[in-house]
Write a structure and sequence with these properties.
Helix content is 35%, strand content 26%. It has 136 residues and is an alpha+beta fold. Strands 5-6-1-4-7 form a 5-stranded mixed β-sheet, sandwiched between helices. A two-stranded antiparallel ribbon has the order 2-3. The mean pLDDT is 96.
């Protein structure tokens, strides 16, 4: 099935494995709350046990260097796409309030981004991710 929109995560290529997983989980959590249309219906197994709904479409994960991340962030902001950011400072914080304070302490162009997540029209997201490669 082809979707009109795309959910994508762009990670900085020099992250440790645990950091990649952690950053991805944090980033996509923001998209589900801000873009409820990306969430499908709740799940239920054959015994009737209910489970939470998840994204209705795949999440594509990309990687790139620091410059690629900065350029993608600038393009996402300029295009007005729904975006979530994770900066290197967040590895040293322990809760949501401290995370938000760490991001708020730095101007947009000074953020040390290690990951961003974006959602929007397929072609717009593709343009934002120009220069990134599929995570592998």
């Amino acid at each position: 099935m082809r979707f009109d929109t795309k959910i994508a995560v762009l990670l900085r290529e020099d992250l440790e494995t645990w950091q990649r997983l952690n950053v991805t989980a944090f980033l996509v959590s923001g998209l589900g709350t801000a873009c409820p249309e990306v969430i499908g219906e709740p799940y239920e197994d054959a015994d009737g046990t209910p489970y939470l709904p998840m994204f209705r479409q795949p999440v594509l994960v990309f990687e790139g260097g620091k410059e690629t991340l900065a350029a993608a962030h600038e393009r996402a902001v300029r295009r007005g796409l729904a975006a979530a950011v994770f900066t290197s400072d967040l590895f040293a914080t322990g809760h949501d309030r401290a995370n938000r304070a760490a991001v708020a302490a730095v101007g947009r162009d000074g953020l040390d981004l290690v990951g961003i997540a974006v959602h929007g029209a397929r072609n717009a997201v593709d343009k934002v991710l120009k220069g990134a490669r599929m995570h592998g």
